[in-house]
Specification:
2 copies of one chain form a homodimer. With 427 residues, chain A is α/β, with parallel strands linked by helices. Chain A has 2 domains: 158 residues, Aspartate Aminotransferase, domain 1 (Alpha-Beta Complex); 240 residues, Aspartate Aminotransferase, domain 2 (3-Layer(aba) Sandwich). Helices cover 41% and strands 14% of the residues of chain A. Chain A is built from 13 helices and 13 strands. In chain A, helix 5 links the parallel strand 3 and strand 4. In chain A, helix 1 runs antiparallel to helix 13. The radius of gyration of chain A is 23 Å and the shape is globular. Chains A and B meet through helix 4, helix 5 and helix 10 of A and helix 4, helix 5, helix 9 and helix 10 of B.
């Protein structure tokens, strides 16, 4: 296939006319498709329905230490839940606190606490003139929204195929004491599906931050979310690595079962050094009497252990792998070799990242919307919603059915072509 | 019975000797009893076990608007949960946001948000030199802990049989713009079981605060927690009253099902003006993708409506009324007429408040502990844990069995007697 960039103006115009007819036809269908959010499909939720039967009126609702999970008490999680999410997080249960239904909420609260009370005895951030976070880009919009909400200045750090640009991270973190954190999705990153390489993790663990209260926000949202049982990524466990490097307190690791059991009805956890966890507990004992222990029990009795979790994740993979492959096939077939876009091929997680020609992303998303396909807003993968090249688009293939997704993917590539032609013609 | 205060030194010494023998005997029993926290007894939790069966693998888990409650979405609560907790809160569902498992958590977050982001556009409290809260005393220790945690200065306001001293509240609130809030448990107050009178509520609604961001934190924790079906207290609904008084935004009302279904596994709600709720939502949309909708559904399908809630609360009352009555009988029988203590006779809630002679509360609690009975720490019902008269003790009769409670109550009155005698002898 001929590259668009090598086509003459006449060729482009002819192609444009053809594609616009196609576009008019799909628009006329009045579709309503959604590739915007990392939501599981209904079929994925069906595979967890057994969880609804785990507890009934005859169940013994005491945890293994004999505590009645129906009543107040046990602020930081029942032991068996710490063990389960400890296995999932690859750390000892002593390094785990179990939270409520949302790890995002824990991240938010962690930033909020740092603002009002500081980190492990350091000055509360609200008393400082300036607080900054490093943001590997493209990244997760909800991370960036949290730091923006608290008035924290965000600095873009480009992602590479092995993780964030570590030369830049090391330089900035060691020079600027106002930099208090970095947002990371280290495995099957949102949106690129990149897993940080061994070297990247080792360099993270060996950072020499100027700020004593600098923390790596290690959002391991997709730790067991593989698409391929025989071809999945490996990530070095960061807590152990930080400890070995003499930086035991430098990282907070977040996990949840949101995309394992039910989004919004899962359980979340933080893994960190004991000193950090004690810092968390000081806040927790003021904030709540305790989280939902019955839901902790429900999860543990359903999944039992790490093998149970992995077996369950294989069922998810069976359902979503065809969706990823179909989108990738469509991109390959329709856009391969045209020189108007690049995309990632993740081995897990929830997203495919697409990079259009510069200055086209907003236009592509707008065209898709007009044809009935909702994409994540262009720019959302960057702090302040500002993609400097206006080229990154996050594709979330899990929520629509395979049939809907097929239509949506076709419309998407059509919009990419149209937008690219207009860009080339205007050049 | 002769008042202790009218006894001669010899009489007191003789009595002391007798009581000390008794005390030595109970101490030798090596008991371990707990009257410290407002926890339901296991028998109370048993009555909600049907809730464990409401959802099963065949249940349709969509809410009434068709949203799949197993997935992300619906940030502020499913409509039927808003209706149920709206009925419980006596407000329209439009004035309700449903939260997670803990109203205390919502109160904490509300103070945290006010610190970092301010209230409805007003200056964030962390930017102010001084922030103060009024604290009706005795009151709920966890309220005071929250304001203390955020460095908010707390001002004691004495409780009266009709609620806080409103002359003092009106004067302080109207004169001092640093006063940003007041903690209230308006019905069956913690620990006295007092319900604010109509006049008190009306005066609250008509406050003229110097601070535009002054808010009444109306923790209606015991709104339907009556001990007597035929003799329960009434409380004027504060949102409506504030609106009628031209102060629609002055109050946040908090409720939860913690002591209705399962503590820690219930659902919580805030009722407030739409302007306030929008202020809450701005924070929520950053903090979380949504709360546990399956638990919302579980509650609604189990309780159905306000009648369902009331019927359920009658079952609770059947179980805890005998406990309250037994403690009150013991206090009447053993301490009545002795002039060494006063206590409240609540019609609902979770506590009885006991006032000893001045300077005796800590000693009584310590003696009880030595004899194997854990009480709420003396002073806990006051900000900073400082009861200026060292006289208030909170009695929580619900958690122990009736048999345990009988022992605990006897030990308690024994400790009161011994402590009072020592006090009188030292005078």
């Amino acid at each position: 296939m001929k590259k668009y960039t090598e086509m003459s103006k006449e060729e482009l115009l002819a192609l444009k006319q053809e594609l616009e007819q196609e576009y008019a036809q799909v628009k006329a269908l009045g579709l309503s498709l959604d590739m915007s959010r990392g939501k599981p499909g209904a079929d994925q939720l069906d595979i967890s329905m057994g969880m609804m039967d785990v507890l009934n009126h005859e169940t013994d609702l005491r945890c293994e230490t004999g505590v009645d999970c129906r009543n107040y008490g046990v602020i930081d999680g029942i032991p068996e839940a710490k063990r389960l999410l400890g296995e999932m997080s690859e750390v000892d249960p002593d390094h785990i606190i179990i939270y409520g239904n949302s790890s995002l909420n824990v991240m938010f609260d962690t930033v909020a606490r740092s603002m009002t009370h500081g980190v492990m005895g350091n000055t509360p951030w609200c008393k400082l003139d300036k607080v900054k976070f490093l943001c590997p880009v493209p990244g997760y919009d909800r991370h960036f929204k949290i730091t923006e909400f608290f008035g924290i200045e965000m600095i873009n750090v480009p992602m590479t195929p092995t993780g964030p640009d570590m030369d830049m991270v090391e330089k900035l973190v060691s020079e600027d004491p106002a930099i208090k954190g970095i947002w990371c999705v280290p495995k099957y990153s949102n949106p690129q599906g990149i897993t940080y390489s061994d070297e990247t993790v080792r360099r993270f663990a060996r950072l020499k931050p100027a700020a004593p209260d600098f923390r790596i926000y290690w959002d391991n949202a997709y730790c067991i979310h593989h698409l391929y049982a025989d071809n999945h990524d490996f990530l070095i466990e960061i807590l152990g690595e930080c400890e070995r490097a003499g930086n035991p307190d430098m990282v907070y690791k977040f996990t949840s079962t949101s995309k394992v059991s039910f989004p919004g009805s899962g359980i979340a956890a933080v893994a960190a050094s004991k000193a950090n966890l004690n810092d968390f507990r000081k806040y927790m004992t003021m904030q709540t009497i305790g989280h939902d222990k019955l839901n902790q029990l429900r999860h543990v009795r359903y999944f039992k252990n790490l093998e149970g979790l992995h077996a369950h994740m294989k069922k998810h993979a069976l359902l979503i792998r065809p969706k990823f492959e179909m989108v990738l096939d469509t991109l390959d077939r329709e856009l391969g070799g045209l020189g108007i876009g690049e995309w990632t091929r993740p081995h897990g997680g929830y997203f495919i990242s697409f990079d259009s020609m510069e200055g086209c992303a907003k236009d592509i998303v707008a065209r898709a919307k007009e044809a009935g396909v909702v994409m994540t807003g262009a720019g959302a993968t960057y702090p302040y919603g500002k993609d400097p090249k206006d080229s990154n688009i996050r594709i979330a293939p899990t929520f629509p059915s395979l049939e809907e997704l097929e239509q949506a993917a076709k419309i998407f590539v059509l919009c990419v072509k149209l937008s690219s032609i207009d860009k080339l013609l205007a050049a």
